Amino acid sequence: MDVKEKLGAIEAVLFASGEPVELFRLSEACQVDAGALPSMIRLINERYDDCGSGICIKKLDSSYQMCTREEFAPQIRAALETKRSAPLSNAAMEVLTIIAYNQPVSKGFVENVRGIDSSSVINNLLEKGLVEEAGRLDVPGKPLIYRTTAVFLRSFGLGSVSELPPLPGQTADETNIEES
Amino acid sequence: MDVKEKLGAIEAVLFASGEPVELFRLSEACQVDAGALPSMIRLINERYDDCGSGICIKKLDSSYQMCTREEFAPQIRAALETKRSAPLSNAAMEVLTIIAYNQPVSKGFVENVRGIDSSSVINNLLEKGLVEEAGRLDVPGKPLIYRTTAVFLRSFGLGSVSELPPLPGQTADETNIEES
Amino acid sequence: MTSISFKLEVFEGPLDLLLSLISRHKLNICDIEISKLLEQYLIYIDQAQEQNLELAGEFLEMAARLIYIKTAYLLPRPEEAEQLKKELEGALIEYSLCKVAAKKLAESFVGNSIFVRSPMHIKADMTYRLVHDPSCLAAAYSGISRKSVRTEMTRMSAESKINSVVKRRIVSVMSKVVHILRELYATGEACMDTLYKGVTDRSARVATFLAVLELTKSGRITISDDNMTIYFKGRKDREKQWMSRKNSAL
Question: pTM of the full predicted structure?
Answer without folding.
Answer: 0.76
